[in-house]
């Protein structure tokens, strides 16, 4: 049973890392669930302080994920249409065969969103698209760093208790 829980935990942490790039999957909370499942094994003792601190960080990052891109968009003169265009561009960029589509898509999506829905001139739309893109990149980087730290904590917890590799009942 412990082996199954460790694999489920690792799967959740990797899904969280993937979720740091995909807006449909909340990366840090999913990775935190992986840490929680790890603590449900018999080999790893339940550590409420550890789980509480990491839960706080996961929730904080989850909330900031919605705030940071809008701050970037607003600071550079963008609108809600630019932020929505960023998310649509992200999906298109992920699915496209273009190299670095995941980076190009959000920028182009924000630019199109500003040009089409706000009827902005190209210079204003470009500036707003840059702001939206920078907010998206900052938010994604922040989520990625936290989920990789959660992976490191998983590995540390797994190997700090040496008997976990031998107790798979």
UniProtKB/TrEMBL annotation:
InterPro entries: DUF456
Keyword field: Membrane, Transmembrane, Transmembrane helix
Membrane-spanning ranges: 50-68, 88-113, 133-156
Pfam families (alphabetical): DUF456 (PF04306)
Domain of life per record: Bacteria
PANTHER family: DUF456 DOMAIN-CONTAINING PROTEIN, IG HYPOTHETICAL 17883
Protein name: DUF456 domain-containing protein
């Amino acid at each position: 049973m412990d082996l199954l829980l460790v694999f489920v935990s690792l799967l959740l942490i990797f899904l969280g890392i993937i979720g740091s790039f995909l807006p449909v999957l909340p990366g840090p909370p999913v990775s935190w669930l992986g840490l929680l499942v790890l603590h449900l094994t018999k080999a790893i003792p339940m550590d409420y302080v550890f789980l509480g601190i990491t839960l706080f960080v996961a929730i904080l990052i989850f909330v900031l994920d919605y705030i940071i891109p809008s701050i970037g968009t607003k600071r550079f003169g963008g609108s809600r249409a630019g932020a929505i265009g960023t998310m649509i561009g992200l999906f298109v960029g992920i699915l496209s065969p273009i190299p670095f589509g995941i980076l190009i898509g959000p920028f182009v999506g924000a630019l199109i969103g500003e040009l089409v829905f706000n009827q902005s001139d190209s210079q204003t739309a470009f500036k707003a698209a840059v702001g939206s893109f920078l907010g998206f990149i900052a938010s994604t980087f922040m989520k990625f760093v936290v989920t990789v730290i959660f992976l490191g904590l998983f590995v540390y917890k797994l190997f700090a208790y040496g008997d976990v590799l031998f107790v798979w009942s």
